[in-house]
Amino acid sequence: MTTAMDLDRLLVEVLDADGPRTAPPRVVEAAIQEASTVRQRTPLPAPLDRGAWPRPWFGPVLSRRLAVLALVGLLVVTLAAALLGIGARRSFLGDASRVSIWVDGVLHVLTPAGTVASIPVIDRGFSCGIVVGGADMVATSGFGALVLRDIETQREVGEVGTDYAGSEVWSADHRHLALVDLAGRVGIAGLSGAPSAATRWVAVPDIRSVVWDGMGMLVLGRRVGEALVIERLDPATLSRTTRATLRIDWPDDETYPSMSVAPDGRWLLLRGPFDAQQERIVDLATGQATLVPSPSVMLAVTWSPDSTLVALGGLDGSVWLVDPTGAVVGRTPPWERLDDLAWAPDGQHLAVLAEDRLRLTDRTGREIRTISLEPRSAVAWADPNALFVARPEARGAVAIERRRASDLGVEETRRSSIALPSPPPYSYEEVCLQVDGPFAHRSQP
Amino acid sequence: MDRTLVVRAQGGDREAYESLAHAVAGRLYATAYRIVRDSDAAEDATQQALVTIWRDLRSLRDPDRFEAWTYRLVVRAALDQNRRQRRAGVRHVAIDELTPAAGDGIADADTRDQLTRALAALSIDHRTVVVLHHYAGLPLGEIAEILGVPYGTVGSRMHHAMRHLRADLAMDAPAPIPGRQPA
Q1: Beta strands at A378-383 and A367-372: parallel, antiparallel or unpaired
Q2: CB-based contact A370:A405 (threshold 8 Å)
């Protein structure tokens, strides 16, 4: 019988033998010839011409006169509603300070002021690699750069990290980030003031994983021989304390192990090598580790806000709800495809995006409500009573709905669009939704 | 890769660019060929990637990431070529016409033949992940960055690809993990 290890080895052999290793010289010469007629592009997208880039929500369709009439009408209606005591409902953003959607190479950011910024993130941004920081800045990462831009002006305002190795981890409130550089140092930066100057570095030998807990502490995973040593790092003092030492099977893939810490900072879920289903929950108070059951290959992990349950989304499309002792307290049926998981802020419900449906389950995985959504939608909670759903409508355009948790009906819809001069050279399929504020959330699968 | 060459090319030094193009062309062509399995399409993808290197090199902030960045360019170009070919109805090499090259003899010819056919039968998205991991030797995290998709998506594609390959090789299901707790 051929084992999985044999298959890996066979693949390497067959792929190595099955095809050329050198390019025909004419290809290189033709490319060099063609490149001689091409000018190098400037490294940064040109500052946006506000006239050429229509402001979102109004779009190019409405004339100025119609817009003025609409505003006057809105004012009259608002005044009438106020006089009649109507319209006491919550704001669109609820408790969120900001909502960001990444789709088709464009980042749409809704702010409490009611404005939206549609920022084309060309070349250096990639799906879900974008985080809006606490100081009205957006960070785009990829290929050796973590570039900060001012949301309003869309100009670059700084760069974080040196010898940046492409590994950055954002704190739960999205206001701080930890970086790992090529020398294995951990850098901690705050997105306020001058971000690049605020980065502080500490050497951590054999660092493999970095993750924030919900209490503002960093949890590090280091490889020491065949053991994984888990430490806690205080970002204020840069001091480290060992929390657990585990023996694990180290695969070749150095991205292992992936860790997820409960908001209370006590429990850590350690994901095993891909395809191995060797997940553990580590008690960071005692250092004790428990092997936990998980659904097939695990793709998504999200802790409940009260740290009493962790939702594990599997490649088979099911979601298992596991408590810190490793006991499975609930599970959902397997769905064809699992796109996202988001706990309600009160931890009583889990929003599951699967098979182009939004499903609300209780803490046992029992489905309470469900609605159909278009493919490529994304979901996050606005507050305990409402959710945001992002739906791409066309290239460069997205609708953001605020839906009631009680019946998943639409309360209000905002739209954002941007007329791209030419489509970004990407065909990414994912839509990523991020909410900043007390119930911060990012799409994860 | 010579970092100095990358920096010089970023500054507009054409000689440095030409040296870079010669240095990376083989790797890019070999990768593109294994993804699209068509020499014409692989040549076009390589040429497109090499031109893009010159045009967009200044957008690469960290010259040390040049290699990963060029993988991104060639994979994107290869996928574009594949889409064009499909739209144009270009004939692909039939699976049963594929003849695996002789290897060093570790695996027998039948198994190699089976695996070559199984690779050709994968979807291009799945094959891309397999090629980048098993041929280019890139970790899944870096593949996610190159493809511009989340890590989980790469993992999912790899899982499905390996499952298809195992099925085609009539492999048994993976053995249970020793010491695993029952659910």
Answers
A1: unpaired
A2: no
Q: Chain B residue with minimal CA distance to A300? A: B152
**Mean pLDDT, rounded, of chain A:** 77
pLDDT along chain B (183 residues), means of 10: 87 92 95 93 94 86 84 88 68 43 56 88 90 90 76 77 84 38 30
Digit-coded pLDDT (tens) for A74-113: 777 767 655 554 444 458 888 788 888 877 777 788 877 7
Measured distance CA(A24)–CA(A37) in Å, rounded:
21
Length of chain B: 183
Is the predicted pLDDT of residue A131 greater than 70, yes or no? no
Its ipTM equals 0.81
Å between B25 CA and nearest CA of chain A? 6
Asked whether the beta carbons of residue B14 and residue A142 sit closer than 8 angstroms, the reply is no
Q: How far apart are CA B164 and CA B169, in angstroms?
A: 9
| pLDDT, mean of residues A18-44 | 83
Q: A336 in contact with B at a CB cutoff of 8 Å?
A: no
Cα within 13 Å of Cα(B145), Cβ side: 23
Strand-by-strand arrangement of the A258-261 sheet: A258-261, A267-271, A280-283, A289-291
A vs B, Cβ pairs < 8 A, gives 225
CA A92 to chain centre: 21
Of the candidates A293, A299, A361, A296, the residue with the CA atom closest to the CA atom of residue A328: A293
CA distance B135 to B23: 18
Query: What residue in B sits closest to A1 (Cα-Cα)?
Result: B171
The two tokens of residue A130 are 């974008």
Sheet holding A378-383, edge to edge: A378-383, A386-394, A397-404, A410-417
Question: Among candidates B182, B39, B104, B79, which has minimal Cα distance to A16?
Answer: B104
Cβ B59–A40 below 8 Å, yes or no? no
Copy the structure tokens of residue B116: 């070559």
A247-294, pLDDT tens digit by residue?
Answer: 877 665 545 567 889 999 999 998 876 666 778 999 999 999 999 987
On the question of pLDDT at A43 being above 80, the answer is: no
